[in-house]
Each structure stands twice: as C-alpha cells, then as structure tokens.
Amino acid sequence: MEAKLTGEWPRLRVADWTDTRDTLHMWTQIVGKVRMAHAPAVNHWWHVTLYPTARGLGTSAIPYGNGAFDLEFDFVDHFLVIRMTDGRRREIALEPKPVAAFYGETMAALAGLGIETRIHAVPNEVEAAIPFAEDQRHHAYDGESARLFWRQLVQASRVLGTFQSEFVGKASPVHFFWGAMDLAYTRFSGRTAPPHPGGAPNCPPSVMREGYSHELASCGFWPGGGEEGAFYAYAYPEPPGYADRVLPPDAASYDHTMGEFLLPYEAVAGSADPDRTLLDFLRSAYDAAADLGHWDRKAVDRGDS
C-alpha cells in the first residue's frame, strides 16, 4: 500500500537495509564528487552536498559552460536522472548492480552529454575504500528501502528547516553530506576554531580543517546509531560541561565514543508529537553549545520578534 506523503514518519530498521544502504552510500559519493568537480568552491565544503527533493536526492543546478546540469536520484521511479538546461537528459536505472557498473554508466552518460568530468574515484570517510571502478562488493538495491530512507530525510529536513528559521547568524543549508551519509545543519558563533585534528578514515586532515575552521554547533540525521537511525547533535570545539547536559527526551544520551548526543529515530517517530520531540532535542542541544560556549546569542538568535 502506498504510504501517505505527509503526516507519517516512515519506519525502516537499519538491519533490514544495510546492504542497500552501503551500496547507495557509494552511489551518492559518485554523484557528489561529480558536483564537486564542477561547482565553485564554497566554505566548509557546502558546494559538494546533495539535497532532499520532491522525488529523492539531487545536486541542484551545477554550472557548466554557458548553462547548467543537475543529477537527481529519483526514488519514486528509481532512476538517476541527469538533466541539462538545453533539454537533453539521460537516465540510469537504480537496480541491483555493482558500484563499478553504476560508476561506469554514470560517467558514460555524462560523456554522452558532453560533460567532461574527472573525479577522485575512491570513496571517502569509509574504512574499506574500494575504487569505484573495482567495487563489485556493493551491489544491493531494494527500491522500497531507498524510498523509505528518502522519506525519512524529507521528514528530518522539514523539521530541521523549522529549526533553521530560528537563527539569523551564519549557518549552513540543510544538506546531505555523502561522506558520512548524513543530513546536516550547522550554526556558527562567528569565531574561528582551533585546527581540527582530523581522523576520518580515507579523508585528508585538510578536509576536516576546512569543515571545522570556525566554532560551530551541528545537528542532523544519519542511518545509524539506533535501530532505525539516529538524530545527532555536537559542538566543535566542545565546551566544558557540554557532555554532562541532560537533553530531552529521555531517549537522548551523550555518546562519549562519538563525541555527540544521539536520539534514536524510533524515539521520535514513535512519539505522540514527533516534530515537537525532535525540535526540543535540537533546541536543547544548541542551548548547551551556545550557552556553555559563550556565544553572543543576542546577535545570532532570531528571538521572539
């Protein structure tokens, strides 16, 4: 039965779609790297991300020559669609196939449209960094699971958008980072931060230093950390006392290994008011970072007006 487009928080156990998730992770890295190859650089790597759309995940318009193109994972009809401003397009079926095949088809489609593209064809932020052209390990694709994950992102993005509207300082879009496969939104205090120590697998320290060059409070959603994924919140640099804060709801807790607060997706989706439950968590995590970090909140918070 087709689920409603509004009013539902989709339920998807991580254990039920791990193989599809891991394949899709590699596919999003390929598409994200295509955007990175052509889009003008923006601070904190905001030019490489994807965005939830009405049908899946897309790049937004990428400048090319005198026009533009975009790529969109359509999780309704299950195609990767490449569109150009001159009306031409290509479609690549989203179906069980190795990453190597998806990579080859994507690059061939771009070449067929005259979009000359070279990417660093190895995944980042994963332990086993198999070159895309050689990856036969990841080949699963369950369309229903991909569709449910996209709808999780849509719901998360909707509430993060409400939270985003409450801040007037420097802040990121609500966007999908393909490195860690998470939907993220970040606020900045306006002050620079100490150099990030790095440590993400198969990711140069310079990448992390650019991403964390300024003091921040970040939050988002990723398909891990709980039975159905988890919402997270952290601060960099983490102010003293941050980890000791008690955040609502009761299911939220600080993970000392990851250095962030986690709230299982199922605790939000199963609550009487999921939007309110999530907003309470996001607002409380930000309060902890901003108050303990001595942010100038009068300058960056929207307030009651």
Helix and strand arrangement:
Elements: H1 18-38, E1 51-52, E2 56-58, E3 62-64, E4 67-74, E5 79-84, E6 89-93, H2 99-112, H3 143-164, E7 175-177, E8 182-192, H4 205-211, E9 214-222, E10 230-236, E11 253-255, E12 260-264, H5 265-269, H6 274-292, H7 297-300
Helix pairs in contact: 1-2, 3-6
Pfam families: DUF5996
Protein name: DUF5996 family protein
Number of strands: 12
Helix content percent band: 25-40%
N-to-C span: 44 Å
- The secondary-structure class comes to alpha+beta
The overall pLDDT, averaged over residues, is: 96
The fraction of residues assigned to DSSP E strands is 15-25%
Order of helices and strands: HEEEEEEHHEEHEEEEHHH
pLDDT < 50 stretches: 1-6
Radius of gyration: 19 Å
Major beta sheet summary: 6 strands, antiparallel
Number of domains: 2
Protein name: DUF5996 family protein
Short précis:
This protein is of the alpha+beta class. Helix content is 30%, strand content 21%. The longest helix has 22 residues, at 143-164.
Explain what this protein looks like in three dimensions.
This is DUF5996 family protein. This protein is α+β, with helices and mostly antiparallel strands and 305 residues long. The chain folds into two domains: 15-134; 143-300, no CATH class. The protein has helices at 18-38, 99-112, 143-164, 205-211, 265-269, 274-292, 297-300; strands at residues 51-52, 56-58, 62-64, 67-74, 79-84, 89-93, 175-177, 182-192, 214-222, 230-236, 253-255, 260-264. Strand 9 (214-222) and strand 10 form a beta hairpin. Helix 1 runs parallel beside helix 2 (99-112) and helix 3 crosses helix 6 (274-292). The protein is globular and about 55 Å long. The N and C termini lie far apart (44 Å). The model is unreliable at 1-6 (pLDDT under 50).
